[in-house]
Amino acid sequence: MLLPFNTDIWLYPNPIDFRKQMDGLIMLVADHLKLKPTSGQIFLFRNKHSNKIKLLWWDRNGFWLCYKRLEQGRLKFPAKSDIAMLLTVEQLGWLLSGLDFADHQLLPEVKATNFY
Question: The pTM is what?
Fold first, then answer.
């Protein structure tokens, strides 16, 4: 599995029941978030204790479901909300590393026009 770097990454910050498996998460994306699960976008879900995260991703002909459980500590999630948040690849890395991505600033995007 090699995740694409040019796709949207959606975090659903409201805790979900982690007994939901792939089909339940697909239904959540389609019915509640009104997004297309087979778009190739990445969807992230958290549990209520902030120590588990699930990643759902469509890879051309099937779904991937990745799951991470911290043995100690908690992941830093934003305030609980029923609205999905769009993350950058950098913010995803910070989140999975246990950093509070809301406290970190991205460098400004550069639109390069001259090449040497």
Answer: 0.87
